[in-house]
Amino acid sequence: MSDWTPDIAKLSALDDAEWMATERAFCGRLLAYAARRIPDRDARDDVVQEVFLGAVRGIHLYDPIYTFEQFLFGICRNRVIDHHRRQKPAAFGGSGDLDDGRPSLEDLATDDETPSRIARRRDLEREGARVLSGIVKQWVQETWAQAEFQRLIVIEALMALEWRNRDVWTRFGLRDESAVAGIKFRALKRMREIALERGSERELMAQVGAAVGQDEGFDLDIKSAWVDTRASCPARHWLARRITGTLPLGPASFVRFHLEDAKCPWCLANLDDLERLEGEAGLAPLLERVGQSTREFLRSRTLG
């Protein structure tokens, strides 16, 4: 139930012991995530094995703006999607249900922007998304440290779940809709201040400021920054304290909302893992499979 994280430098150096420790620490929660989406036990075991192989092969692509757990869960989400694609190929063929983000031939034919302008805008969007994610995470951390848990709940409901002001007002017993608007205004104001404190390229910060202000014209939004970086996900030890009933009232209210209303898939997977009665012994066969495939890959890289 610890919040242990691996040494990224050791993982990048293909340190066998660090990878084995990583597999022991994260296997259960990844399996719990897959179990909610794949009914077949063998299939989800295969998915988890593929996750760790993908992590070993792609560790050089790890972006420190995300936690290592987010890195693993991102791979796991993609592997689960791949599994369902293989099971029902017709459901994903040509209908646009799973947009890969690439422009269509029609889009390219009608786009009058030059390639350099398109590339420039995309570079700004990528870097802007990184900056905006950092701003959102800092705001969440400050709000948690200030024990302003109702404020955190309200902003998660508005920005991540896209609830209407009226829904938030009635659900949480606030004075009226103007009280909700005030909470949102102050949160956005603080996020803009964080952006200014960080400083950056003038054009980039203008675009980030527009995104924070919900202006149009740039492909950045706080919802994506909030969800993609799991900005508000409580640390694993808070979930463990929920199970044991030792969470203080304030954090307990937010954790309950995050699990039951936001239904965060990553935190629900962690909770499932923590509640698993079998303990690590129940994962022994899968851990052996995962460890064997990882060791074989590491040997191929270090002896090749």
Main pleated-sheet profile: none
CATH superfamily of the largest domain: RNA polymerase sigma factor, region 2, helix turn helix motif
Oligomer: single chain
- Name the structural class: mainly alpha
Helical percentage: 55-70%
Radius of gyration: 21 Å
Count of helices? 15
Indicate the CATH architecture of the largest domain: Orthogonal Bundle
The end-to-end span amounts to 37 Å
CATH names the topology of the largest domain as Rna Polymerase Sigma Factor, Chain: A
SSE succession: HHHHHHHHHHHHHHH
Measured by DSSP, the beta-strand proportion falls in under 5%
User: How many structural domains are formed by the residues?
Assistant: 2
Q: Compute the average pLDDT.
A: 80
Overall number of strands: 0
Identify the notable features of this structure and list them briefly.
304 residues, mainly alpha, Rna Polymerase Sigma Factor, Chain: A, 2 domains, globular
Which SSEs are present, and which pair or pack?
Layout lengths: L7 H5 L3 H20 L5 H18 L9 H20 L17 H6 L4 H31 L3 H12 L4 H8 L4 H22 L3 H11 L9 H7 L7 H9 L4 H12 L4 H11 L8 H20 L1
